[in-house]
């Protein structure tokens, strides 16, 4: 699949609830920031996740995540969280995500694979072909990663 020309960006402000006692963002807060950005990316693609789940019994769940913490975010920082589709498979999407300050300082880089799951059976399920506009149908000849 061809990744979009520019990443989707979601703004985040750092509040006390996101930090430790010293005003430094707690590592788990970055996961919430990235989750919100992916959810907003889906919404921007026209996907209402609750309606999708109710209609199909399917939902997206994080399958794998790799993070590189480069610099800390601090209380009251204005951050931008980006979402870019790197690859897709029949039942999953690999996202590249980054979190940075408004001044352009990159703080966190991540690779996040989300799986489409049948929530009743808790088993992988095919992503409906027409769910996300521009998400190319899976073609094993174009597969960039040899993992199953």
In short:
The chain is of the alpha+beta class and 148 residues long.
Give a written overview of the molecule:
The protein is α+β, with helices and mostly antiparallel strands. It has a single domain, classed as Thiol Ester Dehydrase, Chain A, CATH 3.10.129.10. 18% of the residues lie in helices and 37% in strands. It has 2 helices and 6 strands; from the N terminus they run βααβββββ. The chain has helices at residues 27-44, 49-56; strands at residues 8-13, 58-69, 78-89, 92-101, 106-118, 123-124. Strands 1, 2, 3, 4, 5 and 6 form a 6-stranded antiparallel sheet that branches. A hairpin with a 4-residue loop joins strand 4 (92-101) and strand 5. The longest helix has 18 residues, at 27-44. The mean pLDDT is 90.
Q: Note the beta-strand portion.
A: 35-45%
Q: What is the CATH top level name?
A: Alpha Beta
Structural class: alpha+beta
- Radius of gyration of CA atoms, rounded to a whole number: 16 Å
CATH topology: Thiol Ester Dehydrase, Chain A
SSE arrangement, N to C: EHHEEEEE
Average pLDDT value?
90
Name the CATH superfamily classification. Hotdog Thioesterase
Low-pLDDT stretches:
none
Task: Describe this protein with a few key phrases.
148 residues, alpha+beta, Thiol Ester Dehydrase, Chain A, 18% helix
Task: Show the helix and strand layout.
Layout: E1 8-13, H1 27-44, H2 49-56, E2 58-69, E3 78-89, E4 92-101, E5 106-118, E6 123-124
Antiparallel strand pairs: 1-3, 2-5, 3-4, 4-5, 5-6
């Amino acid at each position: 699949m061809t990744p979009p020309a520019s990443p989707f960006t979601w703004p985040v402000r750092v509040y006390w609830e996101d930090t430790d006692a010293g005003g430094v963002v707690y590592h788990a807060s970055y996961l919430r920031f990235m989750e919100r950005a992916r959810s907003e990316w889906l919404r921007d693609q026209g996907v209402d996740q609750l309606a999708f789940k109710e209609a199909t019994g399917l939902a997206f769940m994080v399958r794998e995540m790799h993070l590189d913490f480069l610099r800390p975010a601090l209380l009251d920082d204005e951050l931008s969280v980006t979402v870019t589709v790197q690859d897709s498979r029949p039942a999953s999407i690999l996202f590249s995500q980054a979190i940075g300050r408004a001044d352009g300082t990159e703080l966190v880089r991540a690779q996040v694979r989300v799986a489409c799951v049948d929530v009743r059976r808790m088993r992988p399920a095919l992503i409906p072909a027409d769910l996300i506009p521009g998400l190319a149908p899976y073609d094993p000849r174009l597969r960039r990663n040899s993992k199953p």
